[in-house]
Design a protein that fits this description.
Strand content of chain B: over 45%
Helix content of chain B: under 10%
Shape of chain A: elongated
Shape of chain B: globular
Number of strands of chain B: 11
Radius of gyration of chain A: 14 Å
Order of helices and strands of chain B: EEEEEEEEEEE
Distance between the termini of chain A: 40 Å
Number of helices of chain B: 0
Radius of gyration of chain B: 13 Å
Largest interface: A-B, 21 and 25 residues
Number of strands of chain A: 11
Structural class of chain B: mainly beta
Largest sheet of chain A: 7 strands, mixed
Distance between the termini of chain B: 34 Å
Oligomer: heterodimer
Chain lengths: 126, 106
């Protein structure tokens, strides 16, 4: 079945780095835009980054721009989030998510995030 | 950036109630708006997309409406499993943004 499984979270000191991984299965990964979304403890949801199906374009939220890099390996069906210069306010559960469809022949389905992983927890603390 | 506000932020309700949550956008987002349900310790679950389209497998007691800057999520005949936090999300423009959430509690 369609599944996203995140890993790579852990405890890191401020200023440190971490790479998150999202393993995709059960669908044609190479056709889909992919997202990272995070949720700080007790807070709401925040979009972090998106990457096109072929990795040719990426976008970031202002709070992570210049520090985080989203990438993908379509040969392995894996999505990554490289997080550098981590700050205390980056502490959160990080989810990868997949949209409900993909563009075909220039026609795109209504945007939404319909498949989510279980999340991986990043703790930034000295 | 498009800001989303939700009202109320907290809602106390009972099983069988009909409730409505409102999401307002600081700029028009056409119908490019989704609603999610989240329970503690779990990932968000898509309920509604394109403002009013029910996601497959979601009970018909959930419905969405609106376009432009004002949207509503309505839950009819509230069930025990519906007590959760609900978020709206706009995907019309980058950055993608979420509302602050509405917690529905007993």
């Amino acid at each position: 079945q369609v599944q996203l499984v995140e890993s790579g979270g852990g405890v890191v000191q401020p200023g440190g780095s971490l790479r998150l991984t999202c393993a995709a299965s059960g669908f044609t990964f190479t056709k889909y835009v992919m997202y990272w979304v995070r949720q700080a403890p007790g807070k709401g949801l925040e979009w972090v980054a998106s990457i096109w199906y072929d990795g040719s374009n990426d976008n970031y939220g202002d709070s992570v721009k210049g520090r985080f890099t989203i990438s993908r390996d379509n040969s392995k069906n894996i999505l990554y989030l490289q997080m550098n210069s981590l700050r205390v306010d980056d502490m959160a559960v990080y989810y990868c998510a997949r949209p409900g469809g993909y563009c075909s022949d220039g026609v795109c389905p209504p945007p939404r995030m319909d498949v989510w992983g279980q999340g991986t927890t990043v703790t930034v603390s000295s | 950036d498009i800001q989303l506000t939700q009202s109320p932020s907290f809602l106390s309700a009972s099983v069988g109630d009909r409730i409505t949550i409102t999401c307002r956008a600081s700029q028009g987002v056409s119908s490019i708006l989704a609603w999610y349900q989240q329970k503690p310790g779990k990932a968000p679950k898509l309920l509604i997309y394109a403002a009013s389209t029910l996601q497959s497998g979601v009970p018909s007691r959930f419905s969405g409406s609106g376009s432009g800057t004002e949207f509503t999520l309505t839950i009819s005949n509230l069930q025990p499993e519906d007590f959760a936090t609900y978020y709206c999300q706009q995907l019309h423009s980058l950055p993608i943004t979420f509302g602050p959430g509405t917690k529905v509690d007993i």
